[in-house]
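Posting for a labmate who doesn't have an account.
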Amino acid sequence: RPFREVSSTLQRKADECLKVVIKGTSTNKYGNTWSSVSTFKPTFIANPKKAELHVQLTRSEVVEVGAPPDGAYRVVLDATPIAAKRTRIEIYTWSTDEDLLRRAMRGWAKGDNLGCPDLTKR
């Protein structure tokens, strides 16, 4: 798809789908229960030659030493135009746990799946 379309779709979907706070509780095998909050923070940056979508995650129950204040970068997507109707997409992920985000972003870039991922299922 043309770079402008890909870029505007990524920006719109990041705002719509990735600004998410998930609250829950967990219980371990010993019966200890605790509450948790996972906060996803998307950042979209673009100019005529490149678009970037970064997704950071902070989790209340995890201390990530050395991580930026808004959490570790879980997914980074780079989009660059390569022809009038073609855009190169490169997606970097933290781990295979981020496959749900990767698939969603890829669908947004291709324009064939514009739904929001259910981040409670990652």
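Reply:
Got it, the structure tokens are right above this. Strands lie at 21-27, 33-47, 50-59, 72-83, 86-93.
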